[in-house]
Amino acid sequence: MDWENLSDEQLLQLKIRDLGLTIHGSPLEPMIQNLYSELNDKGIKLHPPCYLADEWLCPDKEPIMGIPFVLAHKRLRNLEQKMMFEVEGASEDSCMRLLRHEAGHALNYAYKLYRKTRWRQLFGSFNSKYSNSYYYQPYSRRFVVNLEDNYAQAHPDEDFAETFAVWLNPLIDWQKKYNGWPVIKKLRYVDALFKKIPDQPVVKASQEKPPWAASRMTSTLSAYYERKRRLLGDQFKGFYDDTLMKLFFPKHINPSAEKAAKILRLHRLELVNNISKWTGHRKYDIHQLLNKLIYRCDVLKLYGEKKDIIGPATFIAAIAGNTLRLPKDKIR
Question: In total, how many domains does the chain have?
Answer without folding.
Answer: 2
